[in-house]
Amino acid sequence: MSSILITGAEGQLGQCFQAVAKEFTKHNLFFVSKKTLDITKAESLEKVYHQHPFEGIINCAAYSKVDQAEIEIEKAHEINEFGIQNLVTFAEQKDLFIIHFSTDYVFDIEERMPFKEEHATNPLNQYAQSKLAGEKVLSKSKCSHTTFRISWLFSPFGNNFVKTILKLSNSKEEIQVVNDQFGRPTYGIDLARIVLEKLTLANFFDFDCYHYANEGAISWFEFATKIIDFSESVCKVTPCSTSEYPTRAVRPSYSVLDTGRVENHLSLSPSPWENALQRCLKRIHYK
Ligand SMILES: NC(=O)c1ccc[n+]([C@@H]2O[C@H](COP(=O)([O-])OP(=O)(O)OC[C@H]3O[C@@H](n4cnc5c(N)ncnc54)[C@H](OP(=O)(O)O)[C@@H]3O)[C@@H](O)[C@H]2O)c1
Questions:
Q1: What's the 3-state SS for the chain?
Q2: Quick one: angle between helices 161-171 and 220-230, nearest 10?
Q3: How far, in Å, is the centroid of ligand 1 from the Cα of 232?
Q4: Ligand 1 contact, 64 CB (< 6 A)
Q5: pLDDT tens for residues 38-75?
Q6: For burial by CB atoms within 10 Å, which of 48, 176, 190, 229 has the most?
């Protein structure tokens, strides 16, 4: 049985790992929230390790406020870059592995072809720049490590698009959603399951980056339409353009991830996003 620390446990993805933890008795999972372990503080890691030694870290801790990062640039880097440096330094000292998560927002390019892991990055906003900086820190590290780049994370937990649309549809007769940004939704529960299932494979750490998302590339408008449809709401969804709905941080218009590497190398096939959405809505309903 391997003992694994999961940081950022109260965040959206951290809660997804908590939700599936009981299915993976082969791992001894040890969840810590920011209150117990601040990844920007090296002494905080040492203290937790001393109380509860572990062999690896699944890092769900992050600064994830995409628009706010345009203002809090230093804070975003402190957590998403220097926090990762702390984890790396510690992991190298103790010979631990690190599994980390990053974002599709590291990409933007005119050509509309799904992005493979080795494609040139071009982060358009501060959040994505800080996440890319964290990826680079980890990729240089000597410990066993890999980063899962994921996109449009949703789940029954925390803040995400599915929950926002459900909330809006309860209070509004009509909502407008952008129809000119394309990506692949990632169901956090599926992601947590595949990480915990596959991490014991001998070839898991062969690559320092994998792209993972559920099957199917869509616009936010298509995503919202299905959420409304599956939840049997009468709220009307109308498409709009990004220029009609400006946000502080620029988002890529096309950041579809190619998941071929993870599918072939770790023998998995992500379920279609509609199926994942239905499972998520069921969990939200019966939570
Ligand atoms: N959400 C998405 O659509 C999306 C898309 C692509 C990639 N990702 C990536 O997926 C990962 C998980 O995202 P998420 O949606 O679960 O984010 P989240 O809900 O914001 O969770 C992050 C957690 O980390 C905690 N945290 C912040 N600073 C910390 C620190 N210094 N030390 C320890 N914990 C700290 C946060 O606590 P507080 O909330 O109290 O600050 C929060 O509980 C992140 O790496 C994110 O960049 C997310």
A1: CEEEEEECCCCHHHHHHHHHHHHCCCEEEEECCCCCCCCCCHHHHHHHHHHCCCCEEEECCCCCCCCHHHCCHHHHHHHHHHHHHHHHHHHHHHCCEEEEEEEHHHCCCCCCCCECCCCCCCCCCHHHHHHHHHHHHHHCCCCCEEEEEECCEECCCCCCHHHHHHHHHHHCCEEEEECCCEECCEEHHHHHHHHHHHCCCCCHHHCCEEECCCECCEEHHHHHHHHHHHCCCCCEEEEECHHHCCCCCCCCCECCECCHHHHHHCCCCCCEHHHHHHHHHHHHHHC
A2: 60
A3: 30
A4: yes
A5: 999 989 999 999 999 999 999 999 999 999 999 999 99
A6: 190
Ligand 1 midpoint to CA 101 (Å): 9
Ligand 1 centre distance from Cα of residue 248 (Å): 19
* Separation of alpha carbons 239 and 178, rounded Å: 6
Ligand 1 atom nearest 15 alpha carbon:
16
pLDDT tens-digit readout, 141-158: 999 999 999 999 999 999
* Domain positions in the chain: 2-158+185-215+257-271
Q: What CATH architecture applies to the domain 2-158+185-215+257-271?
A: 3-Layer(aba) Sandwich (3.40)
- What is the token pair recorded at 152? 């449009």
